[in-house]
Design a protein that fits this description.
Blueprint: E1 3-4, E2 11-23, H1 39-60, H2 64-75, H3 79-131, H4 135-168, H5 179-186, H6 192-199, E3 202-205, E4 217-221, E5 226-231, E6 238-241, E7 247-249, E8 254-260, H7 263-274, E9 279-285, E10 291-299, E11 311-317, E12 320-326, E13 355-358, E14 364-367, H8 376-397, E15 401-404, H9 417-424, H10 428-441, E16 446-449
Length: about 450
């Protein structure tokens, strides 16, 4: 699913599909393959092994150029695959370092909160002992104090370990294949073979703008269906050297097959392929032996939307969005004669599922009551439908969108389970992201402003 990135001015538009190989190579390179596995599985295994090896070499401080060169020699991959494996390993290290800072900050807040929560029952226990209250009440208070002391002790221990990593420049331990899956293996609930399969089930290739796509994993359209062609680099052989003494390799064979994509994304993918936009492809083999494909494009935003005719102001809430038709002078103006909010055709579960409420002041509120209590999958679907309606309404007006800019970091402290569950279920961030994503896809101008400019009180 598409998501905005902070470090770049753009939007990552990811399409999830499925790959159906039709042409498996008949020959194998005995130096790299094991048993009777097909060459595509061997390529995925070599790539993952190169990624794990690169991860350890980066932690040791080995230069990137040397990692790339040695990775090609050790694992038989071409230069792009070897470099992609190194970049994947580097991204894991960078994310772990960023998460370490967040974990320290969050643990310090939790520790402060835990000390406050311990103080109250401790004082209450002291008063109970001094006044000679019944033994049952004193015993309950002692259990409460002991539990909160244990919580405080565990947080202090965790903070000490995190700060030790920060001072030493190290990161928390990374378990390739998944920590939860490894814990299931240790408890005997999952086989080691399943865990090993999870450690070698990926193949990743970056896009190249100079080559207008992706050289290693190329997506094409033959007029009837999408096709995916995957380079099997370990089957290429050295046929000589170039004038600089670098190894000259034969052309690597490819595994080809049909690529299934969701119907709603086909037109957009065709448009981006026709524009020769670079795209990243990640191939993932599931436990059932199927191949999942994640294809990611970078969409460019419209930097300076035209506000000469005004805008459509959008205010997000827990059960819907509020809309205001704003004129070029910044004041609300009447809706155009005959204008109607498009009603989604794919809703009809029950009456009142999608409500259009018009206020005398001219504001329109699109209410979806189910947003406040629906399951996560249902809520995501409803948010997508709501975003589609908002952007379609903007297109009918011919104006850009103004969205509220919200910060949804890990700001939850060590509060009650009910509060944390309510905060995690809040749809605000997903609504803003969904409208943003839809606006970029439909080439509708937008701008984000502080929430105080989109909300009114009274």
């Amino acid at each position: 699913m598409p998501k905005k990135r902070k470090e770049k001015d753009g939007l990552d538009f990811t399409v999830c599909g499925e790959f159906f190989p039709e042409l498996f190579l008949a020959f194998r390179f005995l130096k790299w393959s094991r048993g009777e596995e097909d060459p595509l599985s061997t390529e995925m295994q070599l790539f993952c092994a190169c990624q794990h090896w690169s991860f350890n070499r980066l932690l040791e401080g080995v230069p990137c150029s040397e990692i790339k060169k040695r990775g090609q020699e050790l694992f038989g991959l071409n230069s792009r695959y070897a470099d992609d494996a190194r970049l994947k390993a580097q991204s894991i290290i960078d994310s772990q370092r960023g998460l370490l800072e967040l974990e320290i900050e969050e643990t310090e807040k939790k520790l402060k909160r835990a000390r406050k929560k311990l103080g109250f029952p401790a004082r209450k226990l002291k008063r109970a002992v001094d006044k000679g209250l019944p033994e049952d009440e004193v015993r309950k208070l002692k259990l409460t104090v002991r539990g909160r002391e244990n919580r405080l002790s565990s947080l202090e221990k965790k903070l000490k370990e995190l700060k030790a990593h920060q001072e030493n420049g190290t990161i928390l331990k990374v378990v390739f294949g998944g920590r939860k899956l490894w814990q299931r293996v240790c408890r005997g609930k999952t086989s080691r073979e399943e865990w090993r399969a999870a450690r070698r089930n990926r193949l990743y290739a970056r896009g190249d703008e100079t080559k207008g796509g992706n050289p290693n994993m190329k997506v094409s359209f033959n007029g009837q269906e999408f096709r995916l062609s995957i380079t099997i680099s370990h089957l290429s052989e050295q046929i000589g050297e170039d004038r600089l003494g670098r190894p000259k390799m034969s052309r690597a064979p490819k595994v080809e097959g049909r690529l299934w994509l969701p119907e709603k994304h086909k037109a957009k993918v065709l448009e981006l392929l026709a524009a020769r936009q670079p795209y990243t492809v990640e191939l993932i083999r599931t436990k059932e032996g199927r191949y999942s494909v994640h294809m990611t494009f970078e969409l460019k935003e419209e930097s300076d939307p035209d506000f000469s005719r005004g805008c459509l102001a959008v205010d997000t809430n827990s059960d819907g969005v509020g809309l205001a038709n704003v004129g070029p002078n910044g004041l609300p103006e009447p809706w155009p004669e005959g204008f109607k909010i498009p009603h989604p055709k794919n809703l009809g579960k029950f009456e009142g599922e999608f409500q259009i409420i018009t206020y005398p002041s001219g504001f329109i509120y699109l209410r979806v009551p189910e947003l406040e209590y629906a399951s996560s999958f249902r809520r995501d679907y409803l948010i997508g439908v709501l975003a589609e309606v908002v952007v379609d309404a903007t297109g009918a007006l011919g104006k850009p969108i103004v969205l509220q800019e919200l910060d949804f970091g890990k700001d939850r402290l060590d509060l009650s389970k009910k509060f944390n569950r309510t905060a995690s279920n809040s749809p605000f961030a997903k609504m803003v992201e969904a409208v943003f994503r839809r606006a970029v896809k439909e080439k509708v101008g937008y701008k984000q402003v502080p929430p105080r400019h989109t909300s009114t009180i009274g």
